[in-house]
Every structure is written in C-alpha cells, then in structure tokens.
UniProtKB/TrEMBL annotation:
InterPro entries: Flavodoxin/NO_synth, Flavodoxin_CS, Flavoprotein-like_sf
Pfam families in the record: Flavodoxin_4
Name this protein carries in UniProt: Flavodoxin-like domain-containing protein
SUPFAM superfamilies from the UniProt entry: Flavoproteins
PROSITE patterns to which the protein is assigned, alphabetical: FLAVODOXIN
Domain Flavodoxin-like as annotated: residue spans: 5-127
Amino acid sequence: MQRAAVVYFSQTGTTAHAANEIHRIVGGPLIEIHRQPAYPEDYAQLVTVAQQEREAQVLPTLMPLTASLDDVDTVFLGFPSWWAQPPLVIDQFLRTTDLRGKTIVPFLTSVSSTIAESQATLQRLVQHAGARLAPGVTANTPEVLQAFMAQYEG
Ligand SMILES: Cc1cc2nc3c(=O)[nH]c(=O)nc-3n(C[C@H](O)[C@H](O)[C@H](O)COP(=O)(O)O)c2cc1C
C-alpha cells in the first residue's frame, strides 16, 4: 500500500481504540484531532455544546496537527457518529487541511448509526478538498474492522 496516516477525533476513547487497531496494520503517522478548547467532559454539557455548535453551524477551532500529511497518500479518518453525522471537528479538518490528491478512508464508531448515514456529508467535504473518498467502515466490532482492513494488509 502507499504511505498511510491515521487521523481521528475521539471524545470518549472508542474511536481512538479503532484508530490504534488500524494504525497497527497500516503504520505511518497517528494523529489525534483536538478541538480548541476541548469539549466538556461532562456528558450533558458536551451534548449541549455540540448541539449548539451544530445548530449554529459554527465550525470549531482545532489545535495544529502533530504530524505532517505531506508524504501521505491515504488518510484513514475516524470519528464518532454525532446525530448520525461526522462531528463538526471533521468538517473543519477537511476544510482546513491540504488533502489534494489523497484518498480518504473513513471509519466511524457509534451506538447504532452507520457510515452510510455520513456518506453524503463526507462526499461533499472530501470532494471540496480535492481528495477521493474510498469506501469506509462502521468500526463497532473488532470482527467488522478486521474484515474491512484485510484489503489493506500485507
Ligand atoms: C453528542 C453525541 C451524539 C451522538 N449521536 C449518536 C448518533 O446519532 N448515533 C449513534 O449511534 N451514536 C451516537 N452517539 C454515540 C457515539 O457515536 C458513540 O458512543 C461513539 O462510539 C463514541 O466515540 P468516541 O468514544 O471515540 O468519542 C453520540 C454521542 C454523542 C456524545
């Protein structure tokens, strides 16, 4: 495979776990996206802040990425499903990072929502970034993630 990176946002650690699994297989930079300031840790406050942000469509400020994506061809991009959509952190990452010519492979964790529900949003943002959207995965079980990653192994 061409050079890969794993980039993810994770509020409570579930997506981070999937990101680590993918990184174990593909290597390359492992980059966590951080909102600046961080979302509240308290669940009710988090929901309030995230909901206000979404309703007002205010794109959050992000911390600078901790590694360069310049030499990377394939970006595995992970996030939790929030209201069946990528969090606005992901919108902001896709709008503000130079991803031209790269392939984006999305992976999502959730209670029940699927990557298919985020597809239209991802397609729009990835296309706008001049990148290509590859099929993604709803990475809610190790078995599903492992089966999906088989195509990238070796
Ligand atoms: C603000 C918010 C909205 C959420 N909306 C959904 C949803 O629409 N569908 C779903 O299946 N799970 C939803 N969840 C649950 C998360 O997607 C799920 O717990 C995810 O695995 C968390 O990943 P993380 O630990 O990497 O942050 C939501 C969680 C939060 C905090």
